[in-house]
Fold each of these.
Amino acid sequence: SRPPPVIRYNMNNITATADPEGNRENILLLTPMARFYPEYWANLLRLTYPHELITLGFILPKTKEGNEATAALQKQIAKTQRHGPARDRFRSIVILRQDDEPALASQDEGERHKLANQKARRAVMARARNALLFTTLGPDASWVLWLDADIVETPPSLIQDLAGHDRAVLAPNCFQRYYDEETRRAEERPYDFNNWQDSEVAQKLAGAMGRDDILLEGYREMPTYRALMAYMAQEGKDEKFEVPLDGVGGTALLVKADVHRDGAMFPPFAFYNLIETEGFAKMAKRLGWQPYGLPNYKVYHYNE
Ligand code: GDP
Ligand code: MN
């Protein structure tokens, strides 16, 4: 029998351009998932980027909750890939189960956001993201879209809109819809505080820290005076308006695959006193890729 054929990829033919659809660019859409939300899947199905150019990758913890999420995810995958209309079907789908401990025993919002739990939790999340990235990033991906499992609403043209900026790392602004008991109206509030521009105060704080300590954003106990993209949104203003960022979150983030190929990953340790997605932004920057954000282009996080 013959030996298997050799497959050659000319990496300079794999482009990441402002017209990804026109250039038939492959997207690797990666989601760490502790819980499955039907709204997340429904939103994926609504994405207008050609699904045959999208590969989905998931990593789920090996907990009871993770098992339930995996079962729910697989049910939806079977529906879409086997029984759904052809245009809904994605190119391929990979599911990984985490081989280390889950980020937290309880996944409730209050418990997740406690300062004392942050370093260990963010380190586990970083490992999960790295495992997902390094096992799924093949030679033909142009872009990696990070999208958390609790992002339940984005513009359907999310991929085209973000890629259109032709930035190496680009974060939309992540908000949360809620019902305001006082005004009795549907309102929205900022959710992801990890998209920020650095401040002198934060730099000084980091300078006085031990090398294994990390700075965190959004905690009263640790005021950083960074400029948060979450608060830069302006009602009715240009959705294309860009700001440079020093830290990014992972709720929704478009990255040129070459940034990851260069070695930018999610440090599960203190890297310049930053961890996980914020450490990733720093690493990308050190590699020469400046991250940007879109204050007026919104995606929405589930409200527990
Ligand atoms: P928050 O919104 O900043 O509180 O962060 P989340 O708890 O929502 O976590 C971010 C993303 O990682 C979401 O998509 C979660 O479903 C997922 N996630 C949370 N914990 C774990 C974990 O232990 N393992 C994996 N694989 N994913 C997780
Ligand atoms: Mn979340």
Amino acid sequence: PIIYAITPTYSRPVQKAELTRLANTFRQVSGLHWILVEDSAQTTELVSRFLAGAGVRATHLHVPTPRRYKRGGLPRATEQRNAGLTWLRQQYQAQVQLSYRLNSAPAAPQQLPNVSGVVFFADDDNTYSLELFQEMRTTRKVSVWPVGLVGGRRYERPVVENGKVVGWYTGWRADRPFAIDMAGFAVSLQVILSSPKALFKRRGSQPGMQESDFLKQITKVEELEPKASNCTKVHTRMECNFFFLFIFNRSLVHLFV
Ligand code: UGA
Ligand code: MN
């Protein structure tokens, strides 16, 4: 399958360094298509030039975050991830419509064109190991795995019993329906195309709830597919604010010494 990585990005001093690190990973993943979405009114020269030399198959989009949403305490990159989803749906729309006509009925997921792809939301500041991409390749609907250095813990992870997700190990808002970071799941392209209205939401979405608000539109906890040896291995980590982690988990200090 093609792995579509949707990455929101915005201009700041570390931007090019972050994108470089990401490209160095993505270049090694076969069949990866990078959807890089700038948070800007126009695509920038810096990112255009960077992508031209990045050696990764890529689509370059842009959409500015409305000014009223650019402040602390509000979710980030909602418009950019939605732009990525909309682009993907447009790419496959012709095929989907053809399949509608051939079947002369609304296409059920299994009647969709035989597209094979996986969609993953890769923020520009995280670290992803190559094993992670092997894990997500076999996603049937929605797959999940642990994420390191997030949620006030050394890692957050889905709790798995008998191959099913039954709860969440996290240090932060354990009451979230899907207590998982954006970096902790992938969705099959079939699901993205067969739920054409599923998008990230601004209204009513608090930080940390975007993942749940999105995932509940397309799946149920019982259906999640645990990856990384039943969610016991950590293949991705968040960029972390060490001060935050220090406050929440002093034992982290031992991890790095
Ligand atoms: C956490 C989650 O990991 C994100 O997936 C979630 O979007 C975010 O919280 C949230 O509050 O909504 P965090 O590390 O706090 O992420 O946020 P950033 O890494 O600063 O931003 C997430 C993504 O949005 C990055 O790819 C960043 O480049 C992009 N972003 C951020 C923009 O496109 N515009 C901005 O103004 C800020
Ligand atoms: Mn981040």
Amino acid sequence: PFKWYEKMRKESPIRWDSEREAWDVFDYATSKMVLENKDLFSSDRSQKKADSEKTPLERSLIGIDPPKHTSMRALVNRAFTPKVMKHWKPRIARIATMLLDKIDPKSEVDIVEQLSYPLPVIVISEILGVPIEDQEKFKEWSDWVVAGPKDNKPETISALMEQQERVNKELFHYFKEMIALKRETPGEDIISVLLQAEEQGVTLTEDELIGFCILLLIAGNETTTNLISNAFYCFTEFPEAYERIKENPLATLPLTIEEVLRYRSPVQAMGRVVKEDMDLHGHSLKAGDFIVPWIGSANRDEQQFPNSQQFIIDRKPNLHLAFGKGIHFCLGAPLARLEAEVILEEWIKRFPSFKRAASFTLEPIESAFVYGLKEFKVTIL
Ligand code: HEM
């Protein structure tokens, strides 16, 4: 999409797309402004629906405005503090080691299937405190929520919706039971942390807590998978950069990961709703209009990033918008960064030399809004 973005930034950085009935924004400055200006742009994308018709996800953190957002975010923030992340690091390292142990260096390795896909699902199920014996089932649900059915594709849309409805219900009940369980015997997981907050007088209703758990599945899994796959994609595409990373992974990985986030952003676009009639650089926006800042394009804007089309592993400053900006800034950013760092570091330690496999094909995920790969086969040298 990057050629197209470049053209749009030059020709019409803000435009109305009559087919999708939405405004598109392609430049960095305006995208950033739309993402962070909560007074002019709402995150309540389902505002036309009655409250009772909204799904738990639509009522969750990512789809609400202040003042509700402010109190809910303050509450869930405590489950994602740097201190909590420090606590998670050895566990993530253990999961990464377990995945790497399964790799047979003599055969082709699909990075997506063997590393970048399982890691975030296992991590989030541990963070939520899903018992090991439920993890398979949980993985199935979480795939379903994010990507729809893999096998046994239903024949009709209504059959699909029925199945979707069923999975949503199953998930809802699953978390409901889980909450009851954690109330009785709290653990170190996020659900227990949030239930303890309740005891201290800050409350999240049960529905809100369930919606939050489902949001974590959706917001955290595919995005992190794509970040890790995209890092491997960049390593094989820019061998000189990879040579430098290999020499000193510990020192180079943090900034490299930021550059992967900028250069190949897992989330390419994020929607908002215009709150009041306004003029935006000569365009008349009306209250209720949908507007989409294209993060993937903003992150390649030459006005903001010198040599924006180059992959520069020590780029600094690197104020990319891959995790958004403002009050909705990605809650899981520290976790996603940590997961990427741990798995890439462990991989480089064990398998420093690898190349794209003979059977390699570049198959991007078919969606304009996420950027990632369906598979990425490599051979270990
Ligand atoms: C919000 C991207 C990983 C949880 C966001 C937003 C973006 C984003 C762009 C802003 C949405 C908006 O402005 O409307 C990413 C990327 C990830 C990632 C690129 C991986 C590389 C995660 C993980 C979790 C997570 C691992 C949790 C386990 C959330 C939540 C929000 C959010 C809860 C909503 C925050 C709010 O509305 O206040 N993410 N995300 N994300 N993300 Fe992430």
Amino acid sequence: MDYGIKTWGNDNFFIEDGKVKVNTGCEPSLIEIIQEIRKDGIRGPILLRFPHLIQKQIRMIYKSFSDAKKEFNYEGKFSAVYPLKVNQFPNFVKNLVSLGEKYHYGLEAGSKAELILAMAYNNPDSPITVNGFKDNEMISLGFIAEEMGHDITLTIEGLNELESIISIAKDRFGCVPNIGLRIRLHSSGIGIWAKSGGINSKFGLTSTELLEAVNMIRDANLLDKFTMIHFHIGSQITDIAPLKKALREAGNIYAELCRMGATHLRAINLGGGLAVEYSQHKTTLHKNYTLSEYANDVVYLLKDIATQKGVHEPDIFIESGRFVAAHHAVLVAPVLELFSQEYTDMKLRPKEVNPPLVQELYDLLGTMNRKNALEFLHDSIDHMESLLTLFDLGYIDLQDRSNTEILVNLIIKKAVGLVADKKLSEILDIQDRVQERYLVNFSLFQSLPDFWGIGQTFPVMPLDRLDEVPTRSASLWDITCDSDGEIGFNTETPLFLHDVDIKNRDYFLGFFLVGAYQEVLGMKHNLFTHPTEATIVIDDDGYKIENMLESQSISDILEDLDYDIKEVQENLNDRIEASDNISEKEKKHILGEIYLFLNDNGYLKTINNEDNVQ
Ligand code: PLP
């Protein structure tokens, strides 16, 4: 059981000695990194960032396009910008900017705040593109960027933005940013994020508006600033065919605009969309192309159109973000509890005379073997249904009911162990019925919001015990008080985990490919905030844990919601002081406890057992 690591892992991780290891430098295992971090008393979920995986993705993009340009003898230039919306966290962005410097990798902004970040952090001689709806202030910021010396292109989403640019250009100091026009294509994307393209999409100019825009630019004497057309058919383009269709459409619009007299139009910006393989199962792959196929198709098609239409080969811009960011982050979360962990034979309380069906369960458990395991398992589940009905009708008591639950769970565990080596398809139905619930110390709303929002799955696997067959069909529960906080067992993409007694042994799950969109889309549902994060820098001699940032304290979370934390503290103090339940000495002690709680993060620490701090 390799949890599909060869399908989604991009060669970034591998399994050795039963552990997931990082495939670079001294090849540390994820579990040793986590244990090292936990030595300092850090508990709860931890987000690990690997800068070498950012570097790898950037390098791959530039290399693939450079190879494609060579292969097709392409004259246009290639540039890329990183869309800040995908992950704006400083420990990611600052690494990305410095790793991208030698490529002149730029930044894309979609809001004023992102534009400020781009203006403050973008490398010299690297482009900035600006998309999304803009008011006069945002357009003025674009002018300021140009005045600062940035190579910035403001992409126009509507004619009113163009009017603003023309009017602001008259009032400012002579520097005008480049202008891009976002085109509204007929072609749309594919997959759950396909809404950004197509004639009904939220963004872009129709053909008629395009013609009007070019006339407006010409009349304002700004043709030398109109340099780019832009489109984006959606994130995570799972199939290359719609992209090729969109490219043909955009390539022809580009050629037409050049022929109409857009003298300085040089570039086509394809937006983002390069897909990431999230699937853990070969039967449910999420994309059907490679990066080099994507680069070859883009270069070949644009060359073909330019040759046919007799225009110069356009410079190519891409704004792929998911592809660059997703791989670099892994969320590691401790399992706190297995739902059926309590069901041990020590807890059975047999009666001198058990009800016949309960006795039958004892017999099934005692006589079960490999041959009859599935049949006995079925029988036990049927018996449980009947026994629960008998309880509802008052024919058996709570002790019988407890014995029933324990016996059936023991039968499930025994049966699953006995048939573990059978073909998966033969036992999948059973596995579906006998799922184990793993309570995991993380918030799905905070750390995997795309699973909650649109059902996007992420690879998940235990960090160790990978040389043991996992026997339990797993359903993962997060620690929020919300039943949506669950990744249920799915027979099409089944997840199996190990049977583990958490009181005696830690068990950590890694959620992979969470570096794109998840962090900033994450919600503070139940006031669980961004997990503790650490940047892991690995070389041949060892690894370093840098930029440790502990998850926000409860005081900080409440302050973020605009509570006056002093008032919260005073209220608590007053109420403790006024309590008649405790002595003065106890009050002092409790005030100290409250102080510690307020300054600690909100994730769980202990469950059941003081020694087992998660
Ligand atoms: N460019 C634009 C205009 C976008 O809207 C987006 C995201 O939706 C991107 C780039 C990044 O897309 P992705 O992360 O799929 O590469």
